[in-house]
Structure formats: C-alpha cells, structure tokens
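Changelog-adjacent note: as of this version, every example in the card shows the full chain rather than a window. The one below runs 344 residues end to end.
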Amino acid sequence: MNRTEELEDQVRRLTSTVDEMKARMTRLESAEPDIQNGSKRSSRRGFLRLGAAAALGSLGWAAAKAIPAAAATGGPTLLGTANAAENPTTIAADGLTPPVQVLAAMDSTFSSAALGTAGGFTGTLQGLGSGAAGNPIVEGVDGWAQGTRAFGVYGLTDSGTGVVGESATGIGLYARRSGRIRQDGLTTAGTPPYPPNDFEFVRDLNGVPYVSVAAGAWKQVATTDQGFHIFPNPRRVYNGFAQPTAPGTYGPVDATTQVYPTVAASGVPAGAKAAFCAVQSYSAGVLTIYPDLTSDPLIANWAGTTDGVLNLFYMFVPLSPAGKFLFHAYFTGIRVFDVWGYLM
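Full-length structure tokens:
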C-alpha cells in the first residue's frame, strides 16, 4: 500500500469513528439526567457526554487532514507552513498524453489566456504570475543563491539548450542591474569547427566573437577596428598559370588562402565583406567579379584597353561569407589576383 492509499484508509477509519461518536452523543443527549433535591448533579453520563465532545472535536481535525504542525520527513505536507526535510521530494508524472504539469504555483490574478501570447508552456513545473492590469510585478519563477560562486538559476543539458527565454513582443533575456553577461570560449582559436545554428554567437579561445550569417557560415566580428585593413605586402590568391583562354566563369577563388609562393592563410578572414585586390592582365577584354554563391550580375567591373600591355587596376572584390569570389572573363587573359587588404 502506498502513502496515498494509507492516508485515504486512515481518513475512512477516522470518518467512521466520528459517525459513531455522533451517534453516541445523540444517545447521551436524549437521556434525562438524574435530579435530586431540586438541583442538577454531575453524573457519569454527563462526564461521558463531555468526553465524547472533546474526542469528536479532535477526530474532526484529523479527518479534515488539518494538522497544526510542520510536516516532518516522510509526513504529509502542510500548506502555509515551512516544512523541513533532509531528503528530496520527487513528484513523478504518470506519463499520460498530452503531458501536463505535475506541480504549478499560480498567482491569484493569473489568467491561462495569457499563455497564448507566447509559445507553449508545458513544463512539469510551472510558475504562473500576472503583472497586467495594474497588478504588481510578478516573476513566474524566482531563483536565489548567495555568494560569488552561486548560481541563481542553473540550466543543464547534455546536447540541447540549457536555458530558453521566450517572449512574444518583450525581452527574451535581460541581464538586470549589473548588465554583465559571461561566455566561455571555445577550446581552439579561430573559426568554430562546427556548423552554426541560425543567429548563433560564440567566442573562440582568444575571446574573438563569431556570428552565423545567412549562408550557414561563420562571420568573425572584429574586436578592434572593423573597417579597412591594409597588408604590408600583397598575398597572391590567384596565379596566371591557369589564366582564362576563353570567355567563361572561373573560381571560386578563395581570398582567405594564399597560393603563391606557398599555400598559406592570406590574412583575409572569413566574413570580410570584400578583398582589396590588384588585378593584372596582358590582354584587352571585359571582366565581371562577384561573390561566390550568387548569380552573375552581367555587369562589367573592368574593361581592358590595350592588348599585349600590362593592364593593372585596383578594386574591392566582393566576397561570400566564406571569403570566396567568382569572375567571368570576356576575351581577356587574367594573370593574377593579389590581395592588399580587406574590408570588414
């Protein structure tokens, strides 16, 4: 027999005892007391009647489950009274579908219609409050912990999301008073080694922030100068040994990687808006340069004028989030793309 069944059985026994005591009180009240010398005297029946009333009162309190003391470990919980226990109390759901809360604390002014203004609210533990219509500010759930090593609210998960803040039109997460938000860095420096979620924000080992962009790639957020960066010397990202010999699209060219004289990082970070390039050609023609993963705009960025003479020009080459670009050559032989800097 579990604890609930045991308590219910006790209540049934107490109720039966109360009914029996009521019947005995009725029998005692119906009998007339003895009268001697014109005055009432105490009798055994009177004492019985008084004792029965006292017992009935005590049994009535017990039958109503009103226990005027704090519950000890293993005892029933008394509302409105602090209860001390050295062991946790676990309330398990019965597994029915759909899942519902097993414990809810509700403010007196709360209306369940308010839940429709945001997402679902199906947690096993619910704290429901209302701050509308002039009511005081109410927090749904409060967490308090004291000390510099304490956590007011702690959300832990193996591979999911530890804490979610959701709001229909308000603030999802708010760092109140101090405004401080702390974030651990990755175990490695540079671009995160895993695909990003939409709008994800992380920091690498050195604290440099990265955000995800539309193409599913990471974009580095510069922590100092976010403008135009110039290199002390050029970095060649496309050489002339495979120069175009016919009209067509070439690339993608990775502006973040140097190909000559050795393969190495060029210094252009993924996420840069454009690379500042010196483009060289020895034949006249038309050139269109545009970001990787986009359509050819069919608009010339440059037109050469003299065949057999070095045509050198500088331009900002637009990049994809991964730092790559394409170029479409129309009757021109492109020899090299040398990167001299980039624009964040």
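Structural remarks: Helices lie at 3-30, 44-63.
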